[in-house]
Every structure is written in structure tokens, then in C-alpha cells.
Amino acid sequence: MPSVVVVGTQWGDEGKGKVVDLLAERADYIVRFQGGNNAGHTLVINGQKHILHLIPSGIFHDDKVCLIGNGVVVDPSVLLKEIEGLEKSGVPVPPGKLYVSENAHLIMPYHKAIDLGREARKGKTRIGTTGRGIGPCYEDKIARRGIKAGDLLDPELFAQKLRETLEEKNFYLEKYLGQAPLSYEEIYRTYLEYGERLAPYLTNVSEKLAVARAEGKNILFEGAQGTQLDIDHGTYPFVTSSNTVAGGACAGAGVGPTTIDYVLGICKAYTTRVGEGPFPTELENEIGQHLRECGGEYGSTTGRPRRCGWLDGVILKEAVRLNGLSGLAITKLDVLTGLTEIQFCESYELDGKTLSRLPSRISEISRLKPRYRSFRGWHKELSACRTLEDLPPEAREYLAFIEEFSQVPVVMISTGPAREQHILIRDPFSL
């Protein structure tokens, strides 16, 4: 009855969706524990591309239960459209197959208006948010003025909270951001309708998981974004608004830390980043462009081109420490095929000194110079590889060094976008 947490080790977009989909075959419950619809998980199943923003990737398995935990901020319009889209494509999403925590906070129209208005006001100093209202929603949660999913089932309570909050938000939108005020009646009516449609899905996720564990079920916790986007431990302020590290699964789903048995870190064979912020190994040359085009490195949520660079071992070691990683899944190894030389960042140089960790000050991170170790590339296509022995020796050498450097075993390797294109060395649920 293991409980496994899947987290990203970089700045997100590591390929967590595919790995979660694969592990979901061995899990009974799949739980999303943080973030919002600013994250997107892309899966290719039977040649068809699917992008999920809120619903856990396990939804494509008929006999699984998917849960959205209290640590997720939910835009009900996005969630309902996602349910409708899946059902139109032949994937049923009935209550019982999907549950949403009644304690999950809701993204409201004023959150999105504030998010966009702030970014527009900042201009060149913008953080690069997706404009989905994620940050402002988490702000209200911490300020104890948020609206939770369960509040929609109590019209009087919802009306009171909305009226009090909207007065302040409209003042801020008009007087500071120069935006148009929002209508109370329209929001109230629309969100009560959302509440009626979502009511059958709402539950106490923490209790559901306690029962599942008592029954000996396998539980998979699915994180969004990546370790370096964590609000506390990432490259602040160029981060998301929640705790993306493995410890966030406990608070974001309502489980105790002793219930977590294994933490799997997803690490792309190179590094990417979307939006603003420091990126020590970024390649603004033809190799970076090669990685972007061959890897399809465009945001699944925004379509923005991802910045690409070599694998950053310092970032990886940070993820090992912050998450307590038990194993690594290396994704997009196939994208490196065809490169004559592959480089791996072992350390940084700052003002003539060697650093083996990230500085805490953003002003220093932006001045880091990576120190690389070089590896021979390979030209063999990896899409048909199903065992380690199938990989070219140069790829095996690269993977062995990642293991040695991180001191964490590689337990899974993705060799292409399709579900079947992977090598499973050890099943995290086989403890």
C-alpha cells in the first residue's frame, strides 16, 4: 500500500504528466495537491494528444479514483470545461471517478483581473505569470478572505463573503490598476451555477485518502510545476504561489508525513524554463533552438516558447535535498539524439569563486557562470528502446553520471512522447 509523490526537479515542464499516467496503472488513487490551471500536463495516448490543467493524469484509467486536494486553487469554469472536453473525447468523468476537495479555494474573476492588471502595470519588471489568477487567489487564502469550493453550497455564506471581498477588489482594480469594476450580481449568479454542477464532486479529500490507505490502496500524489518554482525554496520572486516540493503533498491533500513512502523526482535530460527569471545554463544559440524544436518545448498552458539549456546538476542536487528524492525519472532523453557533444553543469563560478549550490539572492543567481563536464553524444534513435541495454553506450554513460552525481538511482527513462516509449527499471510501488 505505498504512497508515492511525483515532483518536478527543475522549473516545471519536466514531463510529469506522462510519468504520472504510467504510474497510474499501478495506483488506485491519484491526487493533485497544489497549483492551479497555470500548470499543464501533456500526454500522448494512442497517438492522441491530451492536455490537462487541473484533473490528475490518472483520469484516463477507468478503474482509478482521481482527487483534487485542498492545496489546489480551482477555477470552476476551467474545471467544468476540462470535464466536458474529456467526456467529448470519450473519457467519462463522473462523480466517484473524480472528487474535488470542499476546502479547495476558488479562483474568482477579480483574481484574474488583478493578475493581468499587475503584470501590465509592471511592464519590463513583470514576473511572467500566466495571468490565470493563481497568485491573487493564494493571497486571499493566506489573508483569510478566500472563497472555498464548499462555500458555493451555502448561498448566504457565499453572498456575504463575495460582497465583502468584491468591494475591496473593485476599489483596487479601479483606483490602482485602472481596470473596470466587476459586477457582484453576475459573479454571484454564475458561481452558484458552478456550485450546482460541482456539488456531486465535492468531498473531504483527506478522509477519502485515510480510508484508502486503511484499505491498503496504492496512492499517487501528482505535483505541478517544479522545485525551483516553489514559493519558499525556488528562484524567488520568479516562482509560483504554492509549495511545489514533496512536503506540499501532506498539507495540500491532508495526509501525515509518515504516510509518504517514496518520492520520485522527474528530471528532463536537459533544462527548460518558461517566463522570466534566472537560468544559469540557458543556451541562446542553435543548440538551444534544436532542443526547443526537437523537444516541442512550448508551454502546454500558454503556448509560450520555453527557454532551453543543458542539464543543471546544481539545480538537481537542490531538488534531491528539498524533496528527499528516492528515485529519478529521466525524461526526453531522445531529444538529445543527434548532438555531437552533451554538457552537464557540475558547479557555478561567481566572482572567481566556485559554488556548488544556488545563492539565496536573485542578484547573485543572475551572475552565475556554469562549469560543465562534457559527454559524447549519440545518433541512435531511442524511440524503440525498452531496456537499458537497448540504449547506446554514450546514453548509458550519461545516465550513470547523473546517478553518481545526484546520489539517487534512475528508475525510469522516457524515450519518446508516447505512453509505451519508456524504460522502467524499478517500479516505485514495488517497495
Automatic annotation (TrEMBL):
Keyword hit for Metal-binding: yes
Assigned GO CC terms: cytoplasm
Pfam families found in the cross-reference section: Adenylsucc_synt (PF00709)
List of residues binding IMP: 13-16, 38-41, 130, 144, 225, 240, 304
GO BP field: 'de novo' AMP biosynthetic process; IMP metabolic process
Catalytic residues identified in the record: 13, 41, 141
Similarity comment: Belongs to the adenylosuccinate synthetase family.
Protein name listed in UniProt: Adenylosuccinate synthetase
